[in-house]
Amino acid sequence: MNGRAVRSVLIRNNRQENGSVDHVPRSIQFDESSEEYRCLCNCFHVKTGAFIIGCAHVLMILFFLIHSLFVYFQHDGRLQQARGVKENYVFGSFLAEMIGLGLGIFAVFLLFVALSRNSALLVVPHLVMQVIAILCFILVLVSGTIALCTDSAVFYRLINAAPFMEHPNNNTVALDTGTMVRIYSLMIVYAISLALEFWFIVVIYNCNRYLDERSDYMKYCLAFSTPMKTLSAR
User: Fold this and answer.
1) Distance between CA atoms of 42 and 49, rounded to whole angstroms?
2) Which long-range CB contacts under 8 A does 73-76 form with residues at least 24 apart?
């Protein structure tokens, strides 16, 4: 019996209002090798795929951390003050990004703990952070597109791709070629990250579902004293 049939009988049709599983036929088996628990072109189990995605997120966080530090330390606030611009937009963007990256690394840590303890609940914060990351990537891409089309200093601040000097009486800014190359490069990175997040969130969601159904099956086995023949020690 495949994974879909197992879930339809074991999990979905046998939940009471309080979420417990009741009256499950003893012939039902939990098939961890089902194709519905595979991911990344059917090459890995969803639990392995979630671990790989967690490692990928660590690398992404390190990249954005290094980039933010580079932009922050490259910015010279004294020149801004000399030109009459008192607002330190670089520090504000840097602080916001540090908070986001801190929450992201904490969510990845919880994901690794969830995979080691087979806890579906600890996967939820990572899913929430992925949704927030997708919204942020979309916002940055929209802001970057508007900035490139209008040369608006406000939208260039939002993407925080590179520090730049602006005139206090102008709402637009003309950037040099080197800065524009950095902005275009980072926009490409944001676009790739957004596409990956749409893929990653599906895998993490399926891993959460797998861990939840695995937990329900284990409770069923304990309740009915049924040997867990198809349940491996993942």
Assistant:
1) 10
2) 74/162, 74/163, 75/163, 76/163
- Return d(Cα 205, Cα 211) in angstroms, integer: 10
Structure tokens at 81: 């003050």
| CB-count exposure of residue 9 (10 Å: 0-12, 13-18, 19+) | middle
Calpha distance 102→129 (Å, rounded): 11
Q: Tokens in use for 173?
A: 């800014």
Model confidence over 79-106: pLDDT tens digits? 455 455 555 566 777 888 899 999 999 9
Convert the pLDDT of each residue in 108-142 to its tens digit.
999 999 999 989 999 999 999 999 999 999 998 99
Partners of residue 45 on adjacent β-strands: 38
Does residue 172 sit in helix, strand or coil?
strand
Q: For residues 103 and 61, what is the distance between their CA atoms, to the nearest angstrom?
A: 10
**Cα–Cα distance measured from residue 6 to residue 17, given in angstroms and rounded to the nearest whole number:** 20
Look up residue 68 and give its amino acid. S
Residues 6+ apart with CB under 8 A from 108: 54, 57, 58, 61, 126
- DSSP secondary structure letter of residue 38: E
3 state SS of 151? coil
